Every structure is written in C-alpha cells, then in structure tokens.
Amino acid sequence: MTGLLLEWLIKIAVVFAILLTAVAYLSYMERRVAGWIQIRVGPNRVGPLGLLQPLADGLKFIFKEDIVPLKANKLLYIVAPAAAIIPALMTFIVIPYGSEVVLFGKQIALHVTRINVALLYVLGLTSLSVYGIVLAGWSSNNKYSLMGGLRASAQLISYELALGMAIIGVLVLTGSLDLVNIVEAQRGYWFGFLPKWNIFLQPVAFVIFFLAALAETNRVPFDLPEAEAELVAGYFTEYSSMKFAMFFMSEYLNLITSCSLATTLFFGGWTGPGVNSYPWLSIVYFVIKVFLLIFLFMWIRFTFPRFRYDQLMRLGWKFLLPTAIANVVVTSTVLLLVN
Amino acid sequence: MEKAVFIIFAIVAVGSALNLIAQRNPLYSALSLIGTLASLSALYVTLHAQFIAAMQIIVYAGAIMVLFVFVIMLLNTPEDHPEIEKQQWLRYLAIPFAAVLIGEALYVFREIRNITLPAQGEAEHAIGTTWSIGTNLFTQYLLPFEATSVLILMAIIGAIVLARREES
C-alpha cells in the first residue's frame, strides 16, 4: 500500500514538473514558430538560441506588480486563476504516455492512474475549466472582461457537445472509456504496414475533435474570448503578474492535454515500431506525436484569420454537432452490420 | 482511507449546501451549489459509481450550473429585486416541501440496511460502471428512458418556440 502510494506520488511529481516545464517552453516554441512563419527571428537574445527566454519571462512575471482593481470582487478575482489552472493540471493524469517499463527492478506502467471512466473524467474537467474564465470575466468589473467571459462560456458549452460526440465514434469502436485500453486496441498493423490508428477508421471524428479542441483551448481561429482587436485581452484584461501567468499556463496546459488526447484517441498513443523490445521508446513516440500536433495548432494560429462570433456559433451548432451525430449513427450501424 | 475521504467530502458537501442557503449574493449561492455537486460526485466514486460521478460533474456542475452562473452574471445586481421579499406566502410553501424531503431521507435511512455494497474486486461488474448502467438503461428501463427523452425533446421544442423571433 505504501509502495503504491509512493509510486503514485513520484509519478504525479514527475508529470507535474514535466508539464510545467513544457508549458514554459511552449511559450518559447510558439514565438519561434511565429517568427519562422512570419519570416522574422523571434526571441534569440537570452541564452543560446534564446533558450533561457522562458526563465527570464518567469522571473519577470513574479517581479511584476500584482494589481487588484478597486471595484473588483476580491475573493472571486483571486480564486479565478486557480479555478482555471487546477482542472488544466488535473486532466493529464489519466493519459497514458508510455507502455510499461522496468525501473529499479519494478514493473511501472507509464500513466499516473487508470480509471474505467477516464474519457468522461477528461470531459468533466474540461467542462469545469469554464469557471475560471467566467469568474475572471465577471469579478474584474470591466466590460471587456465580462464580454470575454460570456463569450468564452458560450463557446465552451457549444463546442463541448461536438467534442463529446466526436469521441463517441472512437468509443463504440473500442468499447472502453479507459484510455489505456484505447491505446492497446490501436497496436499492430493492417496489411502489415498501415498502423491500426483510429484516425483511419474515424477521419470525420478526428476533424470534428480537432476543430472543437481548437475552440476549447481558445486558439485562433476561435480565440473570440480574448480577441484583442475588440476586447483588449478578453477575460484577463485586468490581470497582471503571476495571476495573468496562471491563465497563460492553463491555456498551454489545455493545449498539451488536447493534443495528448488527440494522440491517444486517434494516433495510437505511444504505439510505434520497436516498442515491444524497447519500452522506453514509447515515451519518445508519444512526445513526437504530441509535439507535431501542437506544431499544427501553432501553424494554424499564424495562418488563419479570426472567425466572427456568429460564424463561430453557426459552425459549432449547425455544422459540427450534426456531423458528429451523423458520424456516431453511421459508425454504430456499420459496426453492428460487420459484427 | 475510504472513511477519511467520505468524511472530508461529506463535510464539504454539507458546508457548501448550508452556504448555498445562507448567502444573500446569488452568485455565491450558485458557486456553493457547484461545491456541493462536486463533493457529491466524489462520494459517488467511493460507492463504485464512477459513471454517475462523471455524469454529475459533466451534466450538473459543468453544463447546467454554467448556465445558472451565466444568467446571474447578466442580471448582475442582487439587491434590485425587492418584490421577492413581498411574497411572504412563498415561505410557508417551504414547510410541506421540507416535510417531503425529510420523509424521503428517513425512508432512505430505513431502507439502507438492506443494501450491500459490492466488494472492491467486483467493481468491474458493479452497479455504477458505464457497462452495467448502459445495459440496464436499454433493456430493463427502456420505456422510462425513452419517455424521459421524449420529455426533454418537448422541453427543447418549447424553448425554441418561446425564443423564436417572429419574422417581420
């Protein structure tokens, strides 16, 4: 019992540290990718290739003055950043980031925990992450913040439905809500060369999932809650110092989680050639897949213009949701006929 | 271990429920309700009802309460509704409702002795998993399930009719 508890604690600590480091370096990567796409340089002064830039940013965040607006609701204003970052940090624990490895003579499965409703757990936490944004928007007592908060909550509720429906397609294929089982089901090859990834069976579900994930993580072209041209900065207009950094971090955490979830559901998670003989390779495959997806997100951000709000809502309710439902019906029917 | 978890979340649930009633600010009340729902969900997990726990979070805490908070934020000023104070008879309506609730609770307390929880090892086939709930919902309880969905469909149509603007 104590051994198991210790294993859990170590896994949580390691994942926590890696996630937060990854978040810091994603901000660096995003600026470098932006520079590359827009044919300029990006941050390259702090340390070699600018690699120490996240460290400098972190220090700067800590030393900035922490301002609470006079007319703000103090309690909720302080709670809101925490309410944004806690669900974002909690989601990753059910995602399997590797197969089983032997460490210090002990068989260790590379996921923090496995529960039989893992997918629902992820969806639940995603739906809870709205509160941080909504409370931030309301408690700042600023009309731009409020507009951003309201937009964010409407957008998140709308796209959550399409996201859940897209996942059901994968769900009926695998017959399990457990992400570990979903990855296991994607091992092996068709015709000896095509990996058994769900994306080949569920391309429509993947496209819907991807678009909904873009909207859920508030990224361009769906970043209406913080559209700087209309709303200054949206729900975190009034925030400064580490409180602002916490919103920033939760956004990148959600980005990592969404990409990890997409990898797990559609791209075979940690599977890849040679995993059976070298289990440590599984982590490498997982990281590469997630990294490529994150790069795709960034590529989209610096390529597409922003949607208008009514276009966003129309896309969510009139296109993504019906398509997702149709996908569920077709998948279930085909599966029933095949079996 | 399980007992400690139960005590912590039971205290949080009851505490937030009391806070829900005691608060004058409707937004704080709504947030306390979210606290109650979340800790109830944790209690469901200790009863091996993982699916119900997840649904509690997704449907109630994540969707319905977001709409509540949404509406409260748009109304904004809690002190602007003196007409609620005038409707004193509403207070007396609470007495029969409270009696019904207490009766229900007593009934549950009486019946709970006959229920045995499945052991940890049988959790895969226990009452609360997605598989068993799905199976029961689409075989034994098919009619109530379909009736509920028709009811919800009617509510949706009603909402659309009310919200629809007349074409001019």
Walkthrough of the structure:
By secondary structure, chain A is mostly helical. Chain A has twelve helices and four strands. Chain A has helices at residues 2-37, 53-63, 74-91, 118-128, 130-139, 143-174, 179-185, 203-216, 228-231, 241-266, 281-301, 309-338, and strands at residues 100-103, 106-109, 189-190, 194-195. In chain A, the strands form two sheets. A two-stranded antiparallel ribbon of chain A has the order 1-2. In chain A, helix 3 (74-91) runs antiparallel to helix 4 (118-128). Chain A is globular and about 60 Å long. The model of chain A has no long low-confidence stretch (mean pLDDT 83). Chain B is mainly alpha-helical. Chain B folds into two domains: 1-77, Four Helix Bundle (Hemerythrin (Met), subunit A), CATH 1.20.120.1200; 86-168, no CATH class. In chain B, 75% of the residues lie in helices and 0% in strands. Chain B has helices at 2-22, 26-46, 50-75, 83-86, 89-111, 130-138, 142-163. The model of chain B has no long low-confidence stretch (mean pLDDT 81). At the A-B interface, helix 4, helix 5 and helix 6 of A face helix 2 and helix 3 of B.
How many structural domains can be distinguished in the coordinates of chain A? 1
Instruction: Profile the largest sheet of chain B.
Output: none
SSE string of chain B, helices as H and strands as E: HHHHHHH
Which two chains touch over the largest interface? A-B, 26 and 22 residues
Structural class of chain B: mainly alpha
Mean of residue pLDDT values of chain B: 81
Q: Which structural class best describes the helix and strand composition of chain A?
A: mainly alpha
- N-C termini distance of chain B: 65 Å
General form of chain A: globular
The overall average pLDDT of chain A, rounded, is 83
